[in-house]
Write a structure and sequence with these properties.
FAD/NAD(P)-binding domain; single chain; 677 residues; 28 strands; Rossmann fold; TIM Barrel; alpha/beta
């Protein structure tokens, strides 16, 4: 038993299956499937988390019927061709002592006929608000067909080595749609009262248990609160949980909150929502039933997990993004140095965000997430083909002489420079990092100073901790120039010096303090100088991400009014894929922040800002005391060009010094450079 986290590392039985600890890598989509089948990408991904110490792994949903194909890269659990792929996954996970359950599901009306070319099934003819497609209200004979498909899919999974089955009856499921008064308007024995609405689930439990036998575990993932009007609330979830327990066929209940297409932002909550925000759901159910309860909800470190167990809120802890960011989360937490865990940021940029763009899952902090089957980034031919910008030349394969131990000087301790230092140190190179500022992190540290963005700082904290473990020191307060390069005589120079503000056509200079006329500045200057802007403040946002929205909340404490202008169709348009748009609009409404989309700034005068509604050409004048620009920056790459003539020096640019972008691209490039040297 682990002294610091004794409850988290105690074993627990789910039916006849025993888990080595309480850490669950719960079901989540990956977009790894190929032609409807599990892939080698799945196998390596799950095996890495099993190797990292997770007690239980639950696969992403397996579709039970051809009518359920809501997104392109879904696993067709109804297809018998999955068998050999299942076996390789279960054998790989079992090799490391973890158990693995298969989650099976039918999404019902929360889908599309785009891929299946078949009508959607649902309890009632109520279209989902996201997909907006009218489903078919399934008949009782079709319900029997649905049961049969669940049974066949479950039995196939158990036959191929899965230790248990989880019925997805929560955020995106036809079973939840039967349970919910919002989506079940039936007048037969499956509609009306809660007893009738629960009937499909209870009958399904008996059917699936008969199919898988007594040895395999059987669980139900239940929604505790749909977070929509007239939907399931916790009191009804309690009654359903009691009915589930009364069947005597179920070994545990997993929990969730929200509806995947109406309140998704509370299912995969970003850092704008506090950790353990949904603990009331497992806590309430645990006090109502004796079955083991799995809880989740942005639990990102072992201390939070241990407290949730100690408080009696749950029996097992679902930790997905925590183990995406750090596959070794469980073993590291069990060591004497849990501070070495690479903490998840809950930024949702590369996990949830990539999924929303129909790409496979990855992670802003862990460049190998989703690439475990490749092993290293340099094996990816597609990525190698685009490396010319880092520094010329970029050969596909470096010779043995180049791969020897090299002296590397890194100018800049932002995310890209720190990641490059880690990657190069791991490969035996002698690395020296020099940072002009007094601290590491660059623009990311400034971003972390904004409201609701503090956890971005964990990226730099994690990198610095890893560098400390490798005894790599950073020299602060010193610039890298030609004289220093001559003195140090490195084999390799990495320019990771970041970016600088870029003046748009209608501005001749940026102000660093507010005077009597219109002040014009930009977000980096405001944060660097901690400017307390007053009066009527406007933000012109050309990026459409957190920069402007978080800055607006920050400035609201000193300004009389704050307004965001953007040429986009809506303010914060890029926040949709990271599930931050709902929380932003709620916060903006509470803070009385005005939003003016579809407008561009044309010119400035002493009294304010001239804008044009670009969809109509209408001109407007806005009286303003200050204008803050959130626009694209320019790379600070002078050092790269100044060293062009230094004989024998290999030079590379990384991150913003190459092209100012987001943090995940900086981390990927830093890691990739380690592979290439």
């Amino acid at each position: 038993m682990i002294r610091r986290f004794p409850l988290l590392y105690s074993s627990i039985s789910l039916g006849r299956q025993t888990l080595r600890n309480r850490i669950v890598f719960a079901a989540h989509l990956t977009n790894f499937a190929s032609q409807g089948l599990p892939s080698e990408q799945h196998r390596a991904y799950y095996e890495e988390r099993a190797r990292g110490g997770a007690g239980l792994i639950i696969t992403e949903e397996l579709s039970v019927h051809p009518s359920d194909w809501p997104y392109e890269k879904m696993i067709h659990g109804f297809n018998d061709a999955v068998r050999p792929r299942y076996r390789t996954i279960t054998e790989s996970v079992h090799r490391h002592g973890a158990l693995i359950f298969a989650q099976i599901n039918h999404n019902g009306s929360q889908g599309s006929s785009l891929y299946s070319r078949l009508p959607l099934w649902a309890p009632s003819q109520i279209p989902d608000p996201l997909f907006r497609e009218m489903p078919v209200a399934i008949s009782e004979p079709t319900i029997a067909e649905l049961f049969e498909s669940y049974a066949t899919t479950a039995q196939r999974a158990v036959d191929c080595g899965f230790d248990g089955i989880e019925l997805q009856c929560s955020h995106s499921s036809i079973i939840r749609q039967f349970l919910s008064p919002k989506t079940n308007h039936r007048h037969d024995r499956y509609g009306g009262s809660l007893t009738n609405r629960s009937r499909v689930l209870l009958e399904l439990i008996n059917v699936v248990r008969s199919a898988i036998g007594p040895t395999a575990a059987l669980g139900v993932r239940l929604c505790g609160d749909e977070m929509i009007d007239d939907g399931i609330e916790i009191n009804e979830a309690v009654e359903v949980a009691r009915s589930i327990e009364a069947t005597g066929q179920v070994d545990y209940i997993n929990t969730s909150i929200g509806v995947a297409t109406a309140s998704l932002y509370v299912i995969e909550a970003s850092m704008t929502i506090p950790p353990l925000y949904s603990r009331f759901v497992p806590a309430t159910l645990r006090r109502a039933v004796d079955l083991p309860i799995v809880g989740s909800g942005r639990i990102k470190d072992p201390t939070q997990a241990e407290k949730a167990l100690a408080d009696g809120d749950m029996d097992l802890v679902g930790m997905v993004r925590a183990q995406i960011a750090d596959p070794n989360f469980a073993t590291t937490a069990a060591s004497d140095h849990p501070e070495r865990i690479r903490l998840c940021l809950s930024c949702n940029q590369e996990c949830v965000g990539r999924m929303g763009l129909n790409r496979w899952l990855s992670c802003i902090e862990n460049p190998l997430a989703g690439r475990e089957h490749i092993g290293h980034l340099h094996h990816d031919d597609e990525r190698l083909d685009g490396l010319g910008g880092l520094g010329a030349p970029m050969p596909r394969s470096l010779g043995s002489a180049q791969r020897g131990r090299q002296r590397v000087l890194i100018a800049g301790a932002g995310p890209s420079g720190l990641q490059a230092a880690l990657a190069l140190t791991q490969r035996g190179h002698r690395v020296k990092v020099i940072e002009q500022r007094s601290s590491a992190g660059g623009m990311l540290t400034l971003a972390a100073s904004l409201p609701t963005r503090a956890e971005l700082g964990d990226l730099v904290r994690n990198q610095l901790q890893a560098l400390e473990d490798r005894r790599i020191e950073i020299t602060f307060g010193q610039s890298v120039d030609l004289d220093l390069i001559t003195e140090l005589s490195p084999d390799v120079l990495i320019v990771a010096t970041g970016s600088a503000p870029k003046l748009p056509y209608f501005v001749s200079r940026f102000d660093t303090e507010q005077g009597s006329g219109l002040m014009v500045t930009e977000v980096g200057i405001v944060l660097t100088h901690a400017l307390p802007l007053k009066g009527s403040v406007y933000i012109f946002d050309e990026i459409g991400f957190h920069h402007a929205t978080s800055l607006a909340l920050h400035l609201r404490s000193t300004a009389d009014s704050v307004t965001i202008i953007t040429p986009h169709l809506s303010v914060g348009q890029g926040l949709g894929v990271t599930l931050d748009l709902e929380t932003w609009n709620t916060a903006a409404n509470e803070a009385d922040i005005r939003q003016l989309p579809e407008r561009i700034v044309t010119s400035l005068d002493e009294t304010g800002i001239n804008v044009m509604v670009h969809t109509t050409g209408q001109a407007e004048h806005l009286d303003a005391d200050a204008l803050v620009l959130v626009n694209h920056r320019r790379p600070l790459d002078d050092l790269y060009h100044q060293t062009q003539s230094v004989r024998g020096l290999k030079r590379f640019r990384l991150g913003d010094a190459l092209a100012p972008r987001r943090a995940h691209q900086c981390v990927i490039e830093g890691d990739l450079l380690g592979e290439l040297l």
